[in-house]
Automatic annotation (TrEMBL):
Biological classification of the source: Bacteria, Bacillati, Bacillota, Clostridia, Peptostreptococcales
Protein keywords: Plasmid
The protein's name in its UniProt record: ThiS family protein
Keyword Secreted in record: no
Database matches in InterPro entries: Beta-grasp_dom_sf, Mopterin_synth/thiamin_S_b, ThiS/MoaD-like
One Pfam family named in its UniProt record: ThiS
Gene3D superfamilies linked: 3.10.20.30
SUPFAM superfamilies, sorted: MoaD/ThiS (SSF54285)
Source organism (scientific name): Peptoclostridium acidaminophilum DSM 3953
């Protein structure tokens, strides 16, 4: 199955902005994070198809996962 992954802010450093990954059935968002060498503890916001997601959620074909680190500023 194909999944789109969008990375934001510091997660783009040394990586692409967007990935189109072939993932096996039954994969979880956590599997994507491991593949991209992103520690789940470093993720502040995780969206699955535009809604709040959890790293343990199972992904489906054509899903879009967005990953944000903590963001500061003011």
């Amino acid at each position: 199955m194909k999944v789109e992954v969008r990375l934001f802010a510091t997660f783009r450093e040394g990586r692409e902005k967007k990935y189109f990954l072939d993932m096996p059935e039954g994969s979880r968002i956590l599997d994507i994070l491991h593949m991209l060498k992103i520690d789940a503890d470093e993720v502040s916001i995780l969206l699955l198809n535009g809604r709040d997601g959890d790293a343990m959620r199972t992904i489906n074909d054509s899903d879009v996962v967005a990953v944000f680190p903590p963001v500061g500023g003011g």
